[in-house]
Specification:
heterodimer, A: 682 residues, alpha/beta, Rossmann fold, four-stranded antiparallel β-sheet, 19 helices, 47% helix, B: 338 residues, mainly alpha, 2 domains, 17 helices, binds iron/sulfur cluster
Chain lengths: 682, 338
Amino acid sequence: MLSLLRGKREPIHDFPGGIHPPENKARSTAAPIRPGPLPHELVLPLNMHVGAPARPVVALDETVLKGQLIAESQGRISAPVHAPTSGRITAIEDRPVQHPSGMTATCIVLEPDGREAWAELEYRPDWAATDPAALLEQVRHSGLAGLGGAGFPTAVKADPGEDTRIEQLIINAAECEPYITADDRLMRERSPGIIRGIRMLAHLLRPDEILVGIEDNKPEAIQALRSAAEGTDIEIRVVPTRYPSGGEKQLIQLLTGKEVPAGDLPARVGVICQNVATAYGIYRYLEHGEPLLSRITTVTGDAVSHPGNYEVLVGTPVKDLLACAGLDADRLGKLVTGGPMMGFTLPEPAAPVVKTSTCLIASTPEELPEPPPEQPCIRCGACAEVCPANLLPQQLYWYAKNDEFERAQQHNLMDCIECGACAYVCPSHIPLVQYYQYAKGEIRNQEAETAKADRARQRFEARQERIERQKAEKEARRRERREAQRRKQEAAPSGDDGTRSDAAVQASATSAGGGSAASGGSDGSGSGNGDDESRADERARRMKQLKVTYNKANKQWKQAQAAFNKAQRDGADNLDQLSANVDKLRTRADEARAELDALVQEAKTDVEAATGRDLKTLKKEATDAELAARRKAKEVQAAREAGATEQAQSLEREHEQLRQDADDKAAWLKRVMEEQGMKEDE
Amino acid sequence: MSLILGPAPHTMQQGDTGAFMRQVVYATGPGLAVLTWIFGWGTLINVLWAVIVAVAVEALVLTMRGRDVRFFLSDWSVVVTGLLLGLSLPPTSPWWLTLVGVAFAVIVAKHLYGGLGMNPFNPAMVGYALLLVSFPVAMTAWIAPFDVPTFSESVALFLGQASPDAFSGATPLDTFRTWAGDAQALAGHDILHGRIAGRGWEWVNAAFLLGGLYLLARRIINWHIPAGFLAGLALPALAFWLVDDVRYADPLFHLFGGGTMLGAFFIATDPVSAATSNQGRLIYGALIGVLIWVIRSFGGYPDAVAFAVLLMNLAAPTLDYYTRPRTYGHDKPDRGIG
Ligand code: SF4
Ligand code: SF4
């Protein structure tokens, strides 16, 4: 079947819109990949990926080896961080990271010792014979996260779930943004590794087809890939050069004609897309045991004298890398990270290169000038013509500008991929994408607020309902007991009046061992369950009493002890008497304690009998559920902050379930404990 | 080191709104030349005057609104407004007629709505409609083709020192409208029988068509509005002409008569007041074409570009709502007024 497919030339589909900005790629493709600098410190942010930040597992001053885990992933959507070289941890603190606002974030700072001493690495040359699930687990520890710039943890993306059939595995080698040539050079020089990485991915995903999408402006890379892929079922599909063909959704559309449904993931239509550099990273990890320690970053722009591609240690400060490429600081105008279409400007070059840093453009003011002032929109429609998502950018702009977010959403603002094609062609120089980002942010905030309020309301209502229900149940049980009692008394006319019956019950309940309080009686009206419950109730009452007794005795005993000690010091003569008093009180406390313990033990046994699990398990389950829910909440938060709306939504659903589960378990535990007469602090 | 900051994208296509508008100005060149050739200096004088008035009024309004005059003039949009209105006026127009029309267009139709980009109606056509309703006689005083007044006569007309009556003659559209149904009379009017359509006007329209094709080639406009416009006009014309060629003019007569080509390529395509989606533009253009044919054939006004365009300006937002393209990842377009 596959050979059949290979036999016929699959047509390349099309996507609407698109633009042809000047490529500016030639200058950085001339030289082969060069090693980056070894800076005097590496700054490793804990959040170089989409999702929850990693958690440091190293201490200050600790010496680490190259490849050693220094921060582990936290939660499902997260990625670990490894030491890119050997050295000493000098700080774990907030440092500026790559962000348009020059934001800071927690980073591990490593001072290289220059020895490049490797940690013990785990190889996986037998990957082809390994069960995909186990392999996937392994990939989770690779630290790989969308090297094409998206930064989504690779293992998460490579795990579409048990029952999702993957029809196409698409390797994104389009590299459609101007200036960037990192993937191009990687493919020219290391295609065999890439192809092996792709085969590993295929082993994980078992797709029907494996397609590599590459723009036709990279003939050498195409040639290299083709010859490396010889004899495999990997198809190299050349697509016309048109921005943004490398957008995930656009590439999927180009290669398969499929569209990813709005708000959903490609896996929904049976497609998984991975970047070509990520595939190479998987190969390095599985066959050489190297986690993600470095990446290929394009350094280009008129302000550097040696533009090209550098294999940079993750965490290398941008300024060190620029210096290595021959930066002329006086000529530097705009410093862009990522491509000129979707990248952002850095306010200062101290921030480190991270896993998603595809490119640095050190441009002169003439090269990437300050944008001309914004003119009014003349509704020329040029923007709509180039929009690959088939949106009406001018409408969206209008709504975003006037804070009409609902309208903007109706016009599918959320489907905008922020490619910037519209802003590129706008004759009025309107920074359209900026408007969309603003509106999207506002909408997300609003949604989060509403969702939070909704959940709080739901929880409150559920709780209210539970309390009501429990009250009613308790009331019913009490009535039933009264009834049983009354009938019993009627059945045994001993002359006792009703007022005494309670006392009698209490008396029998206080008898050690918690003997049956409500007798089965001859009328047989009390069900077994009712018996248990009333017994538990009595026990609870007794336990309360005992607790009071115990606390009192304990306190008194301690006081007596203190008095005795004092007397002893003072050399008083009533020591014997005092000592006797201490003993008496201690005995009383001990007795109360013993009985209490016995009752608690018995209650626990009852819980076990009733639920099939011991209290410890119940408690642990409740705690675990609570922790899981909180962890998920953090992931939701992280995904939302990272702007991964779709991800956040699905996480939110998961979170909702976990929250429900945790609430249920807690409520159940509480109820069981209450019924068995134990307070939670027991 | 202070680095330049700014939103993505960091690179932009050459050209700006001013360049865009200047292309429109250049593209009217052939039309303006032919109008001047066939109807004399009056057209050129009025067009220049209209542009001067437009720029002056715009500068004045911008100053009053406290805006940056230079910056907003740099979009050239007001030049286009003045130019298009000037091209639409009869060559016999006195200076005050042009002044009133242009001032109204710029002040009321453009700035009272908030300036460029905010005006729901095509300003030039608003000015034109106002003049047509207020000064119907002056607005229909066209000169018979090739019956060109001298330069000094044109200046006298412009200054209001001469009466247009001495020069004016009916246009082909007027003539047909007057004699429709009378085969003999129609045959007897030379003005109706040029090479392809009405005399003189056929060349005017051909020239504007040329300019329009230039705009298409330069991708300043796209084909949807003109194509819809011309088809909307030609198809009903063809159908009715086939049924009754005495009462209804032939399609070529319509296509190359009156303000058809100016309207199709320069006026209906004003992006601000037109529909924005491609499908919407097609419909928008087509309905303008149909309306023009209806008004020309049955209405009280000899030409109808201005009214047809203004009517459809009104419908453009609705068209936009109902012709939204299907967004990527959605099963069907979300349409309707939500
Ligand atoms: S390209 Fe710019 S001016 Fe033209 S419609 Fe879009 S936003 Fe408006
Ligand atoms: S940024 Fe959004 S609206 Fe603009 S072209 Fe890209 S997808 Fe369309």
